[in-house]
Predict the structure.
Amino acid sequence: MARNFVCNTKDPIVETKYGKLRGFILDNTYTFYGIKYANAGRFQLPTEPDSWEGVKDALGYGYVCPMLTQDKPGSGELKVPHRYWPMDENCQYLNIWTQSIDKNAKKPVMVWLHGGGFFAGSSIEQQAYDGASLSQFGDVVVVTLNHRLNILGYLDMSSFGEKYKNSGNAGNADMVAALRWIHENIAAFGGDPENVTLFGQSGGGMKVYSLMQTPSADGLFHKGIIQSGVANMGGGKPGDTSLIGKALMEELGFDSVEQLETVPYRKLAAAYNKVSPALAKKGEYVGASGPIPDDFYPGDPFDIGFTDHAKTIPVMVGTVLDEFMAFAPGKADRHTRTEADARAMVAAHFGEENADELIALFKEAYPGKPVDDLITLDGFFRKASKDFIAKKSECPEAATYSYMFNLELPVDEGSGPWHCSEIPFVFHNAHSTPYCCIPGVTEKLEYQMSSAWVNFARFGNPGDPSLPAWPACKPGDEACMFFDRECTLHHNHDNALVEKHMAAAPKFRPGGDDVEIQH
């Protein structure tokens, strides 16, 4: 059956602060792609975008930020379906899906911050990032955005002069510029500038709470959802930030820092990839990995505590059961191995002395899950998320909610959920993602998760009649919603397990040699 499509010279057209934009309508969803929200020179802060006369098309996605290394062939496409797009450092673009362009509609606004750490990814990289279904399902305005990453967004060059002030946080400054654009223009797209929720996964989740800590973003958003994105890796001010800039100039044969502004990105990236490992090995600053404390960004909440404004922002924080480790090949005997074989497997992985206690704690925390999930159990994000939740729950100014995505997915003989696997359910895009197809489960769980995210964006409370009662966390009481075949609420379910697991598990650091990460 043909769908309703409208795109002509008069409809749909929206007037922004900078000029008129033409998008298209598919069924009831108004869509606008590739809207420029800022300009910026390399290593410099963003400025307002250019204005224009007449009507400008918003019918194609904008550039995505270049990556430091070429992406590998998509061997993991089944688990994380990707899209690719032309790259350019002129990448400050956003996309909008909405059900109305009435400036008085005042619909909740949900702004998606993509994963890939602070070094890779884009607003359209994963197929599940498409905002049309979520907008239609929840009657919300969905916005996704690109910003500068890696050495373009997070290389501190401030030691070379005032011109490069805050270059170590340029990527976050881009996001603040996008939020300012949204605040000034989203009413024209039916959105409420006083009800904006940030939601993001992995690096996108880290971006959510780094923006909670950023004074220039205060008042530009009002709630935050952090999906598999809390990492307590230590922070603080770096050492001599000039060394990486000097090394780049030496490698490229330059005698002035200004030459780094104009050298082609690929050449700059190649030089960075060559000189940075030796500096990093010595413990020196090499940048490109995320925001650093300065006048713009006071610091990570684990280092300095929550800012007064961050304390007032309601948050929802969660992870998936197996995260990165579920990218490993499946096991044919996942559900058929004997208890003796399961114990031998656990003992081989965690040590004979830890096996019985870990198995008992795992079964208590996750009844019905196969012991294989103990081998692939995430500790990196889960421990940091629990710490974040505990710390934020002590702030009475705003509520903190906890969740976990536990659904076994039908790949191989069944797989624990992997990093990114909850995203199609959140975006109401499970229908377009093959691994989400579980008869009798998909539609119900998709409804429950999308409803929780939309309700949190609309009201600051994720509760829904389709879910058990879901209270906010309190000091000493983490009330965690399990999103699974049957959704259930649990209190402090894995406190003992996480502590034992963290002590016994092999050391793991995303991006290290232990595992190849896909976003």
